Automatic annotation (TrEMBL):
This is hydroxymethylglutaryl-CoA lyase. InterPro entries: Aldolase_TIM, HMG_CoA_lyase_AS, HMGL, PYR_CT. GO terms for biological process: ketone body biosynthetic process; L-leucine catabolic process. It comes from Cellvibrio mixtus. It catalyses: (3S)-3-hydroxy-3-methylglutaryl-CoA = acetoacetate + acetyl-CoA. Pathway: Metabolic intermediate metabolism; (S)-3-hydroxy-3-methylglutaryl-CoA degradation; acetoacetate from (S)-3-hydroxy-3-methylglutaryl-CoA: step 1/1. It is an enzyme of class 4 (lyase). Its EC number is 4.1.3.4.
Amino acid sequence: MPFPPKVRIVEVGPRDGLQNEKIAIPTGIKIQLIENLVDAGLTYIEAGSFVNPKWVPQMADSGEVFTGISRKPDVTYAALTPNLQGYERAIAVNANEVAIFAAASEAFSQKNINCSISESIQRFQTLIDAAKSQHIPVRGYISCVAGCPYSGAVDVHTVASIAKELLAMGCYEISLGDTIGVGTAGQIKNLIETLARDIPIEKIAAHMHDTYGQALANIYAALEMGVSVIDSSVAGLGGCPYAAGATGNVATEDVVYLLNGLGIEHGVNLEKLIHVGNTISIALNKSSNSRVAKAMSK
């Protein structure tokens, strides 16, 4: 299959990237990060999450972030919402899209949200019903698609079954998350091939963490399969508390550099993006995890 001519980049840095930072990040810095990302050409920003702040204190100010953004037309400002209460909070501050999440591992589901996979999916029905009535798009995440930190290998047919169920409930797209970054290109290709037997390829997105340094190879494999939506995090922000040495999401800068080399359209200005990544890294008192940013900033 030929590469897609255009890729939509889903920027998850302001949510997935920042949520594991231990030191409280000022709301103003989060708002500036989002506005800078939009200025660099990104049109889909996961701007926050409306989970219980007791569990994810870094996201406690997501409401203030959403109300403080200077919004631009044709940009999606999305929120992660675990339940109807979180959905209602997100809609109250004008999130124009929401995302829900399920795990492909029973052990991970129990450890992470204290219920089975099927129970977690059933909980989303009232949220999706509300979103349908208000014409709010719902995106679905599946975590641990390539491996679980508690139970090891994950069955591709389990992933496919969850994906089909989420789509049937009303999700418009399924993002396949290699949460602990253990996947390899062959494994990801096999996974997508399996899902594509029953699911249109345009409804599949790739969300790769780079713990084992395989994220770009896995994204390349997904592109080869025709996947045209890639999740990434500026400066490689993020990390997984369930995997020793996890380095978090693939860096958006590195994804853009890969797409440039393949001649795939994406709409992002790489130089501006590198500046955004370096700026937020300085604010967090750390170095950028983007190899492209490091190479081009010398």
